[in-house]
Amino acid sequence: MGIAGSVWVSGRAEIVNDVHSDSRFVNGTVGISSLMCAPLKAKDTVVGVIKLGNDLPVMYTAEDLKLFTTLASLAAVAIENASLYEQLQETFYTTVYTLAETIEKRDTYTGNHTKRVMEYSLAIGKTLELPEKDMARLQLGAVLHDIGKIGVRDSVLLKESSLTDEEFEQIKNHPLYGEEIIRGISQLKSAIPGVKHHHEKFSGRGYPDGLKGEEIDITARIISVADSFDAMTTNRPYRKGLSLDEAFEELRKYSGSQFDPEIVDAFFASDVMEAFFSANSRQKILL
Question: What is the pLDDT of residues 4-43, one digit of tens each?
């Protein structure tokens, strides 16, 4: 509409030093007396219009318009680059999610486990007010935390009864396999702590490195709580999942030994808890 709409259609910058006498004047420009409009062009396509106006009569000149058009061109390039970056990021995350879901397809009993662990982890991170950089690491680590299970034999991973000590030792290698898989991909290296150490225990009695307390990366400590909670509340061939109350009690019981107490407290203070107790929430979470 109006002058800006005309510039959008024509693709040409304009000076309108008397806005109110212009036939294209619309109420949206009330208060503006003088105006310059320039198209934002990306690869010869107009993606927007930038306006510069003054509520006092100003005689904009051709030199003003030339400078303004140059700034508009720079802005258009920046906007296009930002859009391309967002598309690239979206493609990257979609690829990562697809890779993680492919691993899940091997075990039908853990359907959407990765998605739930990611949602729980991000809710905890939000409660802890983690910096944006750590939230990004947390998201990647949560999505990829079980990627190393691709290296575990089906006879062990899909076994419908309790594991032997030898089989459990094989399962314990999956964090190391996960590290090996993502170490060669520069965009995923930030996820290594969450992938490799999400089975470490706050007491130092976890695996694979026996790290203790804050030696364990914050993302791994968060994923540990999220992963354990989802595992406890999910049905397996050899046992029925715990109720929410039973799982909550387990988190409290092992807070300070298996889990970081601060992370457990953040879990109970997170938005996840409200979702659990809203109408039909448990069914929605599991779907």
Answer: 889 999 988 999 888 888 888 766 555 788 889 999 988 7
Domain with CATH 1.10.3210.10 in the chain: 106-286
Q: What is the pLDDT of residue 86?
A: 83
- Cβ atoms of 58 and 17 within 8 Å: the answer is yes
Beta bridge partners of residue 50, listed in sequence order = 38
All CATH 3.30.450.40 domain ranges in the chain, comma separated = 2-83
Beta bridge partners of 239: 236
- Alpha-carbon distance values, 38 to 7, 72, 242 (Å): 7, 6, 62
Long-range contacts of 98-106 (CB under 8 A, 24+ apart): 99/144, 99/147, 100/143, 100/144, 100/146, 100/147, 103/146, 103/147, 103/149, 103/150, 104/146, 106/149, 106/150, 106/154, 106/157, 106/158
Q: Using one digit for the tens of pLDDT, what is the confidence trace for 261-271?
A: 999 999 999 98
Which of the listed CATH numbers 1.10.10.250, 3.50.50.60, 1.10.3130.10, 3.30.450.40 matches domain 2-83?
Answer: 3.30.450.40
Angle between helices 218-232 and 132-144 (to 10 degrees): 40
Task: Tell me how far apart the alpha carbons of residues 252 and 255 are, in angstroms, rounded to a whole number.
Answer: 5
pLDDT at 283 over 50: no
Dist. CA 176–CA 242, nearest whole Å: 29
Contacting residues for 220 by C-beta, under 8 A, at least 6 apart: 141, 193, 194, 196, 197, 198, 200
Q: Specify the CATH class of 106-286 in words.
A: mainly alpha
Express each pLDDT in 46-90 by its tens digit.
889 999 988 888 889 999 999 999 999 899 988 888 888 888 878
